[in-house]
Design brief:
With 187 residues, the protein is an alpha+beta fold. The chain has a single domain, classed as Nuclear Transport Factor 2, Chain: A. The chain is 35% helix and 30% strand. The chain has 6 helices and 7 strands; from the N terminus they run H-H-H-E-E-H-H-E-E-E-E-E-H. The protein has helices at residues 5-24, 38-55, 59-64, 83-89, 91-95, 170-178; strands at residues 66-72, 80-81, 99-103, 107-110, 118-129, 138-149, 155-168. Strands 1, 2, 3, 4, 5, 6 and 7 form a 7-stranded mixed beta sheet that branches. Strand 5 and strand 6 form a beta hairpin. The longest helix has 20 residues, at 5-24.
């Protein structure tokens, strides 16, 4: 179908007017950083501590972050259930001999009107292959965890899952490391 000269000219004018209007529109503001409550910041700190237990290759500390009846790989057909089974399954990861796993929270959330004993956390994860011959050294994924505060007041992971990692460049690995905040963005 061919457009008449008038139709073509009308289309050009409309495209030009739209572009001019868009150029005059103010830029979209950056989203405000998340601000978390004091309780959400407790979970934030506990998530950082959990990740540090793996960085320190401390199996005892790692297990202490896990609820007795937890499930890891929660979205999988056969999640790993129970603290002891999870700790056993994660032994190689905690030892860090084949690859290094790092993560940190970017968000923790409490439900409104909840009893204050359940929280959700999420953030990015970085897998680093320690084999010097590895063709793909870095992979970036994400995690999602549900935390439960026990009767003793300690937050422990109840459910954990992740997003399959994708290949990443060294620059992306550096950006991941630079994105880690040790201080919770408290409200």
């Amino acid at each position: 179908m061919r457009l008449s000269a008038v139709s073509r000219l009308s289309a050009i004018v409309l495209v030009g007017a739209s572009a001019a209007a868009a150029a005059q529109s103010p830029p979209k503001p950056e989203p405000a950083p998340a601000r978390m409550s004091a309780t959400e910041c407790q979970v934030w700190a506990r998530e950082l501590s959990f990740a540090q237990s793996v960085a320190d290759h401390d199996a005892t500390a790692f297990a202490s972050h896990i609820e007795t009846d937890a499930a890891f790989g929660a979205s999988q057909p056969q999640p790993t259930r129970g603290r002891d089974e999870i700790a056993k399954r994660w032994t190689g990861i905690v030892e860090g001999k084949r690859f290094k796993l790092s993560w940190y929270p970017t968000r923790t959330t409490m439900g409104a009107g909840s009893a204050g004993d359940v929280a959700w956390s999420s953030g990015p994860s970085l897998f680093e292959d320690l084999d010097p011959r590895a063709t793909q050294r870095f992979r970036i994924g994400a995690f999602h965890s549900v935390w439960h505060r026990g009767a003793d007041g300690v937050w422990r992971v109840l459910f954990d899952d992740g997003v399959d990692p994708r290949p990443a460049t060294e620059a992306e690995a550096v950006a991941f490391r630079e994105g880690r905040q040790t201080t919770c963005p408290q409200a």
